[in-house]
Amino acid sequence: MSKEQFLKDNLRPGETYAGILLGQNGEPDQHIFMLPGEAERATWKKQLAWAKKNGGRLPLPREQSLLIANLKEHFKPEYYWSGMQHAADSRYAWAQVFHNGNQDYCNHLNEFRARAVRSIPIQ
What we know:
By secondary structure, the chain is α+β, with helices and mostly antiparallel strands. It has one domain: Mannose-Binding Protein A, Chain A (Roll), CATH 3.10.100. Helices cover 24% and strands 33% of the residues. It is built from three helices and eight strands; from the N terminus they run αβββααβββββ. The chain has a three-stranded antiparallel sheet with strand order 1-2-8, covered by helices on one side. The two termini are 13 Å apart.
């Protein structure tokens, strides 16, 4: 299937195709789509709910790396929440700064922007 046909069949109105994220540890590669709209600054839990309400989820840090590589112009030069909680301390979650690409973990109570994504596994 050509890329044009794939996008015609899978790209929903208002979405932007971010690219292919390579799978890790036996997971399949995935197509990543960025959903339309952007949330203003809010806490991590509020942004999780916002993304779900809009039919997606917050991107994982690896997905945010793909977004900054391919779609940086769609982001303000600020922090954006990821959907990954810090493994060692549940009061923290990962975020990415879209002006320089840094990723760091921050307290859930911080208020950062958000974009939502969805993915399709490559069979």
